[in-house]
Structures are given as C-alpha cells and as structure tokens.
Amino acid sequence: MASTLTLEQIETVSDIWAGFTLMDRYAVPKENCSCLEDMKERLRLHYEKSRGKGKSVEAAQDVISSLRNEDETKREDLSQLFHETLASLRELDDQIKGHLVQEGSVKNMEADLESHMESLKSNECPILVVGETSSGKSSLLNLLLGQDLLPQSLLSCTSIMCKIRYGPTMRAKVKQANGVVTEIPLEGSGSPVEKLTKFVFKHDRGETTEGRSVEIFVPIELLKTGVYIIDTPGFGENSSMDKLLLDYISNNDIFAFIYVIKSDNAGGVQEDRLQRFLRFIVEQQKARHVTNFDPRAAIFVCNRWDLVPEKERATVKADTMTKLGRCWPDLQDGQVFCLSTTGAMLQRRAGYISEDFSILLDGIQRLIPIGLRRKIHRSYR
Ligand SMILES: Nc1nc2c(ncn2[C@@H]2O[C@H](COP(=O)(O)OP(=O)(O)OP(=O)(O)O)[C@@H](O)[C@H]2O)c(=O)[nH]1
Ligand SMILES: [Mg+2]
C-alpha cells in the first residue's frame, strides 16, 4: 500500500468496506459518509487537500467577507472625494456662489452631495437569495454561513423574509404586521433552527404571514464586514408570499442576488415564473433609478444537482442555459453553477470544500462585486 493516498487507490474502491478501510488507513474523517459516492468524494477531496490543492474552509469563509472589503475601500475613497468637493463648493468666491445659487446649482449640488454621503455611510451590503419553492435557498444559505441556522424542509417552507446579519450574540427580532417586535434569544440550549422554525416556517404553504419579517443576528466573522444575506420565501406558489418578495424588491435597491433553481423539477426550469420574476427585478430597479442594473452580477445556481441522473446532466444543463438565456440578457456560462448543497454541506462538516461549492464560491467572489460596484457608480453620477 502506498504511503500517501493516490488517485488510483480511490478509483479502485468498489464498495463501502473498501472505502472505510482506505479512509482508516489515511486518517480521512468518515463522518456523514453513508454511501460509496460520498466516500469517494471525501477521499478525492482529502487527496487534493494533502497536495495543498482545493479550498480550505477558512478560505471559503473569506470569500463572503472579502466582498465587503472591496466595497468598503471604494466607499471610503468616494466619501473622501465628496467631502473635498463639498468643502471646495463652500469656499467658493461669494460672487460666483451668488451667481450659482441664483441658478439653483450650488444648492442642489450641496444637497445631492450630502445625500450621497449619507447613503455611502450605510454599511448595508445585501445579497438576496431567491428562487423556486424547495429549490434549496435556505439550505444554500446554511452552507454559505457554515452553520445550521435556517430551517429547511421539503414539506414546509420559508414564509417570511429572513435577514441574516452580524450581531455579537445570536438572537432574532421578529416584526409583526402590526409593528410589534419580538426578541428571540437563540443562544443556550436547543438549536437555533428549532427556535426559529415557528417564526419563519409554515407547514401549510397556503398560510400567510403578510407584513412580517425577521432579522437574525449571528456572531460570525464573515458577516462582521456588513454583508448581509436575505433568505426569501419560494416564488410562484403563494400570492401573499410572492407579495412579500415583490414588495421588498420594489422598495429596495437590489445589487446582488442569487437565483436558486430546483434542477430535479420535472420539465426543468419553470420558464414563465423565472421570466416574470427576472423581468420584475429589472423593471423595478430601473424604476428606482438603479441605473445600468448589471445583469452580469446575477448568479444562477442549479441546485439539487445530485438528484439529476448522471446521464441526463448534460441535457438538463443545456436546457437550463437555453431557458435562462431567453429570460436574462447577455447570460454568460460563468454565471450558472451546478451544485449539490447537501453534498457540499456533508463535506464541509468534515472540513472539506467540495469542488462544485468551490467553483460557486469563486463565482460569488467574481460576480457579486460587479453588482456592488453599481452601488458606488450610482453615487458618482
Ligand atoms: N438531494 C438534495 N436535496 C437538497 C439539496 N438542497 C436542498 N435540498 C433539500 O431540499 C429541501 C428543500 O430545501 P430548502 O432549503 O428548505 O428549500 P427552500 O428553497 O428554502 O424552500 P422554501 O423556503 O420552501 O422556498 C430540503 O429537504 C433540503 O434538504 C441538494 O443539493 N440535494
Ligand atoms: Mg426556505
């Protein structure tokens, strides 16, 4: 037997017992590996890791926090420029100033600069996670955050907008339709998922929770930089839940979003829903004067990829690309990612980042900043 794990050894593993034996021999963690495929994937990831390849769990966390850093630096530069311009405006010769005031331009410019400076101060950097019901939005968020926080289930559904942001202690704030706010401590005994379930989850998809929202505060480093993530109810099944999402899009600037697709849906991507939804985003953002809303910043995740039979994957991917291409302007191959969230979570719990998740993280790092730059550009105008 070789002194280090080799690819040939992994390829020859043909049953669970051979897999366990190889894992024991090379001290590969076995947790959560319940089938041959999971084991071989774990062995492959271990092989890559031992050769210094593949993403570490720490690097995966850094992806989200680095998004913010880029935004932060640009915001500081721009804020400085605004300060200087405002100071120069205020120092203008009285005669010139009088002339410009008469034209109304100085007053407007000062007011404009002040309002831009105010919006730049905002530490908000939202990433919206949207998509079909049961496509795995909540599961994907748990994966990105590296912990089980949001309830996920096939039978029940997220019924409320869940904003996840940094806080020194783990807690949630639930806002009722009548404005009453309830604080829910999430620390201590019992899992956060259990404590949150009755507030953010509905067992009957017909029930409504109109007008409510929840903010979940978690003490994790990657959110400390101001990035926050919003889990949303599935789109297209229940009109009151659709309304929650559509109202949010109409009332907020959307610079970055991840659209999750249920790849194992019979008939593939539900094109009409997708089209209505994506059109709505573009129109609303135009109406909100988010100029040049950049379609390149959207990320599409073909999730539950493990449930698509291997021999059908190429066809399903091609069909998805065609349908997405018809709904989304200038769609690039690099915006669409195939992922098994459950598979990635299983590997992540054992300290490995699966290949599909690693590719998605690279995509997030590449594409989300395009959207965030729009936020800055808007202030330049
Ligand atoms: N096999 C498989 N199951 C997945 C994957 N991602 C999520 N699931 C399962 O799909 C079901 C739905 O996942 P959720 O995360 O609740 O989906 P959601 O999009 O948040 O659902 P709603 O809130 O109802 O819109 C759960 O049973 C998950 O365990 C995946 O990649 N593979
Ligand atoms: Mg959900």
UniProtKB/TrEMBL annotation:
Transmembrane feature ranges: none
High-level lineage: Eukaryota, Metazoa, Spiralia, Lophotrochozoa, Annelida
Residues of the Dynamin N-terminal domain: 127-263
Pfam families for this protein: Dynamin_N
InterPro entries hit by this protein: Dynamin_N, P-loop_NTPase
Protein name, entry field: Dynamin N-terminal domain-containing protein
